[in-house]
Amino acid sequence: MEVSIEKNIIMNLKLTLLDIVYNHKTKRSDRSLSRTVIASFHKLTICSFLFLLTGSLFATPPVKKKQPKRPNILIIQMDDVGFDDLSINGNTVAKTPNIDKLAKGSVQFDNFYVANVCAPTRASLLTGRDYWRTGVTGVHGGNDFLNLNETTFADLIQQNGYATGMWGKWHTGKAEGYWPWQRGFDEAFYAKLYKHYPSQGWVNGDPVKYEKWSDEQLVDMAIDFMKKNKNKPFLAYLSSLSTHGKWAAPEELVQKYMTAGRTKDFATLLAMQEFADQQIGRLLKYLETSGLDEKTVVIFMSDNGPIPQKESAEEWALRNNHEYIGTKARNWKNGIKSPLYVQYKGKYQPANVELMCSITDIFPTLLELTGTQLPSSNLPLDGRSMVGCFEGKVEEVAPKQAFFTNRYPIREEKNEYAPYAKDEKYNYDFERQRITLIRDDYKLSLNPIASPNSPKPVNKLVLIDHKNDLLERTNIVKDHPEVAESMKATMKEWFQSIVDDQNTFQEKVAFIGHPSSDKKQSVLRAVLMDNSEGFENHSHHVKFPENGKGYIDYNVLVQDGGEYTLKLVISKQKVNTPFTLTFTANGKEYPYHFNGKATHLTKKITLKKGFQSIRVSIDEDTSGLKGVFFKDMFFNLKKSI
Predict the structure, then answer these.
(1) Structure pTM?
(2) Is-contact 529 537, C-beta < 8 A?
(3) 425-463 burial, b for 16+ CB within 10 Å, e for fewer?
(4) Interval 109-123: pLDDT, tens
(5) Is the pLDDT of residue 638 over 50?
(6) With helix as H, strand as E and coil as C, how does 301-365 read?
(7) Is 195 helix (H, G, I), strand (E, B) or coil?
């Protein structure tokens, strides 16, 4: 199926942009703009014209006009749903009949692993690569933005003629250049975290709000997408917000579980699970009644293990009937073991697969299912296709090893959200890192975080018999020292490859305007900083300096030079102390005088086109600003120059 001229133009613009960004990033030690980079950036404006004249700016694999029928793809991913949260896996209080039915008709994977927190899992899902390679080294604070030189499965499958859509939790970038509709999805609903009701966010850049529960809205949008594209191959990615906290569900369902004697919190969780299951059932019912179930591969998974909130100890035990060790954010089994169910009606026979697989395997699997070629220029994958497992040919799928880490590297800087200083990674001490290596036979963890019932490390190591010690209760390092040392050496080699990669542990480029967007407004998140002094980065905001002096630098790429209005936004908390934030660009200062009550101020500014560093600074007594935080910058282009 041929790709439209419009999509090719956009893709070539994107590739040109990424090349410019790459060239600039390799020169980060010299913050002056090279003539080469500036000249290349100006060429973005004529890329589409050149494409129309030449047919293509870049060599791409030829697409055959006649292709065999390719299946549709439906990915359903839950949020913070543990393996034992589903009744199919022995939970006696959860009501998930629709997921159970899907599982019973699926190829079920008994050893499928994901990262222990959400953004890293999603980075590996999208790219087929270990998440630290992709620039995603945390869950917030700018460390959850997927590097621009990463290719998503949507990028490639879209080029291969598929309609692509996603709805729900994205969590790999929430600013210009990083949105899902700029990473390969024709249609995307970026759902705001964590607005379970009413559902709200952005659809292809436009703010929206729906008076519906999030799971209901996501399924509505997915069904609409499938209806529109039922006569062509499609890839649909439904990324639920359930059951991430703060837990919320329709009150009638909550009351049903409270009547059964559950605490309010546990009743809310169970109601949330049941409501999500009902909506998934509605989606699967549409596939069945439309006949698309015989044309669609359905893939179901979670993003990490469960996390306890305020349920009682007895209720937490009900959530973990297998008694696996750990929780979300831990590399014990309960933190990283995910359900994986793959159904293709009439094609794949229900079966259980013991082979160890991981989240990086989804990307190459999707490429094989859709007949999509991996470009030779693509960054190396860490996963392998699982299609043989679906077809009953497990023996043809090569064994693999999978690496999981603490969500952020252990570094001298104690604040996990602090920007990465240039070359600081070369001082990272491997022996201090928290890394887990899993194979079919053994699992080795370096510096694992202690959890209830977890075995004690020996020389910082825990070695588990992965085939036989399913509850991970016994450390066998002393019994198999040669295995532990060999696996540790492999682990160290992997870590060194991460450090040596030029794309890892560095700050991201921020965009003001973007070649793929015609919108006049761009948001620059305060946390997406390149460098700072005094200001302290946090998950969603930046804390003011304690000593009254400080600055934040941002590495930005401006699409259109011209006159802008810039709105600086601080937290909603009001203070009585006036203060001034100074925005500096191109050597000119723009003071923003906050009177202590305003949460945002707007000024006219001028920006030049191309790469540049901009600064936000403060130089005054900040003792009265402890409850105030810097949040975002909104740039609106008024006149191009």
Answers:
(1) 0.92
(2) yes
(3) beebebeebbbbbbbeebbbbbbbeebeebbebeeebbb
(4) 999 999 999 999 999
(5) yes
(6) ECCCCCCCCCCCHHHHHHHCCCCCCCCCCCCCHHHHECCEEEECCCCCCCEEECCCEEHHHHHHH
(7) coil
